[in-house]
Automatic annotation (TrEMBL), chains A, B:
Domain called HTH gntR-type: residue spans: 8-75
Database matches in Pfam families: FCD, GntR
Gene3D superfamilies, alphabetized: GntR ligand-binding domain-like, Winged helix-like DNA-binding domain superfamily/Winged helix DNA-binding domain
Protein name: Transcriptional regulator
Keywords associated with the record: DNA-binding, Transcription, Transcription regulation
Record has Magnesium as a keyword: no
UniProt-listed InterPro entries: GntR_C, TF_FadR/GntR_C, Tscrpt_reg_HTH_GntR, WH-like_DNA-bd_sf, WH_DNA-bd_sf
Amino acid sequence: MQPIEQPKSLMEVTTGKIRDAIVSGELSLGSKLSEQRLADMLGISRSPVRDALAALQIEGLVNVSPKRGSFVFTPDMRDVDELCEHRTILEIAAIRMGMDRNYDKLIKSLEESCDAMQRALDKPNPKNYSIADDQFHKFILDASGNRSIIKSYNHTISRAKALRTHLFTIFDENTDRSMGEHIQILEACRNKDSDLATTLIAKHIEHLATAFRIGHSNQPTDTST
Amino acid sequence: MQPIEQPKSLMEVTTGKIRDAIVSGELSLGSKLSEQRLADMLGISRSPVRDALAALQIEGLVNVSPKRGSFVFTPDMRDVDELCEHRTILEIAAIRMGMDRNYDKLIKSLEESCDAMQRALDKPNPKNYSIADDQFHKFILDASGNRSIIKSYNHTISRAKALRTHLFTIFDENTDRSMGEHIQILEACRNKDSDLATTLIAKHIEHLATAFRIGHSNQPTDTST
DNA sequence: ATCAACCATGTAACATGTTAGTTGGAATTG
DNA sequence: CAATTCCAACTAACATGTTACATGGTTGAT
């Protein structure tokens, strides 16, 4: 017998559902989210929906406008830059910590992610590539072992995921270059060259930021549905 | 005529009240928070209290245990270390950015905070010293200009404030040393020596972490009302 | 035709009712 | 007396009702 985990509350499930819908592009940026309508769609009452929207507002994925309604976030260029900068800081710090404290685990998990990315390129399967890409960076954070930083990163990263989905149509992003960069980062970690690893991560995210900027300028104010 | 700001919602006011009560030590670490009781105390219904507790849970100040009740957070040694580490990373990044992008504003605001700290030492007024201390670090973050990082920092820092209040009785912390460190940091900024500034910040927060560890070991499991 | 007052509708904020899980202690059993 | 069962009280989760505000279209006056 082992302790059973608390089954997820309705609110948590709802939060995940709405987050997924935003990140996956099912809900477009800026689209309206009525508590009542979401509750009807999900077949539950307004309470857990309201709680979920409040949580997502803190996460930055949703803006709640008093008495007017809730809306999926609409990032401007500055948001994108700030988000990437924040990400860079956290990932650089995390990879340094991970190399110091969890070298073996770090290498193992990054290898695993790189393999998954390579498989996704071979098929090719864009969705799986994105998942493995996310996993790669998540593993860097996990290796840091600092729960406060991991939590902060997770709160930050969902916006980046949503941006990628909304700004890139399937394979706009240069996945070959991306793949190579990930492998370089892994290699730098293997060699315990933390300075190189951090430089590579900074460049990698800067490339992403540039792609975001281009994508964002092509697709300005999108306020459908 | 200028646009009026939206008056704060009951939930926001409630969040602030509870947060202040925790940070100020009015509510001790680990103490129980019943939605009903808080609502009665504040003369409002359970809804805004519930929303506030949910927000504070995300902020890390409160743990909500399903069907059991809500409790003020009870950090262990590891939490303290992780929190300080996280803080260091954000402040170091922010001061680099601030020196690059908002040098004048940074210097001016740090000078202002140092003056306030010095005045608090002269009186002496511990509470004012803490406020000015917090302000000093907040200004470093503000100078970065990165809203994502600022928001993340603010979510992180309230736990640190609460720790200081709960672990230190009035002037346990070495405020003279603290004052000197702040001045050194300011001086390093004035000289645009960002490497020195970051080193000093790391040391400054490490001193705080050490003080927390000592305070924490002296005051283990405190689960009073 | 123009414009402003008005009203119907939609919204989240807030209040309150209901339900199911948790807990601590009293009653019961050995 | 000790251990267990059971029950009453408490709790947050969730449902639903009410209210105040926002909005967009209609109407009525000019």
